[in-house]
Design a protein that fits this description.
The protein is α+β, with helices and mostly antiparallel strands and about 750 residues long. It has 24 helices and 28 strands. Helix 23 links the parallel strand 26 and strand 27. The structure holds ligand C2E and magnesium ion (2 copies). The site of ligand C2E has 24 residues, from strand 20, helix 15, helix 16 and strand 24.
Length: about 750
């Protein structure tokens, strides 16, 4: 449920981020698209203007160059006496400049022209204007002087004498179409067109006469289309006032136009230069640009969204990877403790039991079957737990051979049934590997409603640890723990330093005898804790505790020092001292400066190394080859090494082959089986083997004569056991040393 909520929240957050980004991107893109469209439109209009101005200049130049020619000829002609004759000579200009003819109108209108015709043109406007002293360019006229009656345009100027009196009118006649062609005013891929309209609205120049016929009346054309009504009036007003005009006109279809008034011939004539482009042409261009822009927009949006999704994707993938690393156990690939806590946090119903599972003697698998088999055992155990957990339950590997399990059972009996099933499966796994003595142990704790999983696990583990020394049961409920005992352990830990300083730890000696019991050959130093109130605490109560918390190393050193001090004292007192063996725990052996430190203690008390021996348990050796090094150094120093509790560990034979000790101390459990056939056979072979390897054999825990006789028969060297002597305080042992063996014992 919580996971679902979390997913929904994440989705909401992602949506809240992606949607505004998407909208922002969309608006930005649309804004820029719009801007670019406007820019494109402005650009096209600017192009229209540029073309219009270009054509204005072309028109002006064309008219002006003709005007100059006409003026030059007129000035010559005005003073000429035989004008008709002279005019004829101007034929070469006609050919040179592509004119139709040049003519001279006398004041009465009679006109002589270069092609030899004579006509009266007194009714023509250009003549009348010329006589008024004004230059002009006619509209498109029908040629009156030729039989072809083609379209002509006549440019005329007054011919003035030196006094400024008009003496006639000089005129130049063009073929209107030729004039058109010389201007070449098409543009915009041939779609656009520039044309000139005179003040009457008559089209004077039109290279695009497919659309706008020469001589047609432009004003009338416009007026014919009602869509032009308002804009046209305004346009003419502007143009007549000498201003430029632009906008849309409807000829056949909608056209953008740009119009410029063009004053010609010293301002006597004004034409309006129109440049038009079909609106379609613009729209097509804009559409193309728009299409490109939209495509680009789409690509940009897709890229940005792809980027966002990619980033989100990478982020999620990395998060998943980080989660996987944080939540996955490296060996099993399953859940680790962090994942366990996470899943527990997401469980709807947490009513049930937390179970801490440790595999007892797991190291036996590593030793006997190898590390790979140990790993396989861990993985198979994980599978068993994974299968055991139902949908509302969970499991994880915490570390090494420690697992945690949550079973949502309310009923203790059902819970224990399930635990039993798990035990059988794990037990079978170990059996398949042919490694005995491996079994799971459980600490069980009923989780309280608002209690953290970490706290609950600590309690389950406390129960599991508590169980370790108890071989009769494989599970323990936290509630069953003897809390007084636990408190006592805590108190012992707290009092340790003080007790050490106050010499509350005493060395007791348990003598070792020759096999015939005739003489003491040495002793073992065994620690005892005498409380302030005089009560005595046996090592079984505190040694395992101090081994667990590492305090044992200091206690071992204290014992070693005490033994050295005592031996040295007895020696100085002139007693015949015998070797005393001191126990060293596995934890003590880890200190790198151990041998040097102990060597210094020996030197400090000026004690020969043969008077102090070291006992190391067989289990301390398991899987620790570097301990061999330490033991080797002790032996080089002259200190003998005794292999304690031999026969209890799993790797007895392996240890035997290490050849790093001098004495085998047979564990009491081996001695206890004397009288049983199998036990005796085993003991027989162990002793034979030891003897063949040249080891000294000490039997420990010898309590009766039967055992003694059998051991004597096997030529065991020394006997340590209650049969001869129990551990005793230093004083008692001292009297034994002095007075010899109490024969009543
Ligand atoms: P351990 O080193 O195997 O010592 C022999 C234990 O067997 C002693 O128990 C001794 O009292 C007991 N024992 C000897 N003969 C007999 C017998 O005939 N019958 C019975 N039932 N028991 C017998 P203790 O003194 O209670 O010591 C228990 C263990 O505590 C020792 O086993 C040793 O592992 C550890 N220990 C004792 N003192 C020290 C110490 O100074 N340092 C360390 N690291 N461990 C110590
Ligand atoms: Mg011992
Ligand atoms: Mg022992």
């Amino acid at each position: 449920m919580r996971e679902k909520n979390r997913k929904q929240t994440r989705l909401l957050v992602a949506t809240l981020i992606v949607i505004p980004i998407g909208i922002l991107v969309l608006f930005t893109v649309l804004f820029f698209t719009n801007k670019m469209e406007e820019e494109m439109h402005t650009q096209l209009v600017q192009n229209l203007k540029d073309v219009a101005h270009q054509n204005e200049i072309a028109l002006k130049n064309q008219i002006h160059s003709n005007e100059l020619l006409l003026k030059g000829l007129a000035s010559e002609l005005v003073s000429d006496t035989d004008q008709a004759e002279t005019v004829m000579q101007y034929q070469r200009f006609v050919e040179e400049y592509g004119l139709k003819r040049l003519g001279f109108c006398q004041t009465d209108g009679m006109t002589v022209s270069t092609d030899g015709a004579t006509t009266n043109l007194s009714r023509r406007d250009f003549f009348k204007r010329g006589m008024q002293g004004k230059s002009s360019v006619s509209g498109v006229l029908q040629d009156a002087m030729s039989d072809e009656h083609g379209n002509v345009t006549v440019m005329s100027i007054p011919m003035k004498d030196e006094a400024g009196q008009v003496q006639g009118v000089a005129c130049m006649t063009y073929d209107s179409d030729a004039f058109n062609d010389s201007l070449q005013m098409r543009s915009f891929d041939g779609e656009g067109c520039s044309f000139a309209v005179n003040e009457n609205g008559s089209i004077m120049v039109s290279p695009c006469n497919d659309k706008l016929e020469l001589a047609a009346n432009f004003s009338n054309m416009l007026a014919a289309n009602p869509k032009n009504s308002d804009s046209v009036k305004e346009m003419w007003q502007k143009l007549r006032a000498g201003n430029k005009a632009s906008g849309i006109l409807y000829l056949n279809e909608a056209d953008y136009y740009y119009a410029i008034p063009v004053p010609l011939m010293d301002g006597d004539v004004t034409w309006y230069m129109f440049t038009v482009v079909p609106k379609n042409y613009f729209d097509q261009r804009l559409d193309t640009v728009r299409e490109t822009l939209y495509r680009m927009d789409a690509i940009v949006i897709v890229c940005i969204l792809a980027g966002v999704f990619l980033t989100v994707g990478i982020f999620r993938k990395q998060r998943r990877e980080a989660m996987r690393l944080a939540y996955t156990d490296s060996l099993t690939g399953g859940a680790n403790f962090a994942k366990f806590c996470f899943v527990m946090g997401a469980l709807r119903n947490r009513q049930g039991y937390l179970i801490s599972l440790d595999i007892q003697n797991f190291s036996n698998i590593n030793i006997a079957a190898g590390r790979a088999a140990g790993d396989a055992m861990i993985m198979d155990t994980w599978k068993v737990l994974q299968d055991a957990a139902k949908s509302n339950e969970t499991a994880a590997r915490v570390q090494e051979d420690h697992f945690i399990l949550f079973l949502a059972e309310k009923n203790k009996e059902k819970l224990l049934d399930r635990v039993d099933r798990i035990t059988k499966q794990i037990h079978a796994l170990a059996k398949n590997m042919q490694v005995p003595g491996v079994y799971p142990k459980y600490g069980i704790y009923e989780l309280k409603e608002n209690e953290s999983v970490e706290d609950g696990y600590m309690k389950a583990q406390t129960a599991c640890n508590y169980l370790k020394s108890d071989r009769t049961k494989c599970y323990m409920f936290y509630d069953e723990i003897n809390h007084d005992e636990m408190l006592e352990e805590q108190s012992m830990e707290e009092r340790f330093d003080e007790a050490l300083a106050a010499r509350e730890f005493e060395v007791w000696y348990q003598p070792k005898y020759s096999a015939d019991g005739a003489e003491i050959v040495g002793s073992e130093a065994l620690v005892r804790w005498r409380n302030k109130d005089g009560s005595m605490v046996s090592p079984g109560r505190f040694i395992p505790l101090f081994e667990k918390n590492g305090m044992i190393a200091r206690l071992d050193e204290y014992m070693f020092r005490s033994v050295c001090r005592q031996q040295s004292l007895w020696k100085r007192q002139g007693y015949h001292i015998l070797p005393v063996s001191v126990n060293l725990s596995r934890a003590s052996l880890y200190y790198s400066d151990l041998v040097e430190k102990y060597g210094n203690i020996l030197k400090e008390y000026q004690l020969e190394p043969e008077y102090v021996q070291i006992e190391v348990t067989e289990t301390a050796m398991e899987g620790k080859n570097d301990i061999l090094d330490v033991l080797g150094k002790f032996r080089n120093m002259g200190v003998r090494i005794l292999m304690d509790d031999f026969g209890t560990g799993y790797s007895s034979l392996a240890v035997l082959s290490m050849k790093c000790f001098d004495t085998l101390k047979l564990d009491k459990s081996l001695i206890d089986h004397i009288g049983e056939e199998n036990g005796e056979t085993l003991l027989y072979h162990v002793i034979c083997m030891g003897q063949q390897m040249g080891l000294h054999i000490t039997a420990e825990g010898v309590e009766n004569d039967k055992q003694l006789v059998y051991l004597q028969k096997l030529h065991c060297d020394d006997i340590q056991g209650f049969l001869f002597a129990r551990p005793m305080p230093a004083g008692e042992y001292e009297s034994l040393l002095v007075h010899g063996i109490d024969t009543n014992n």
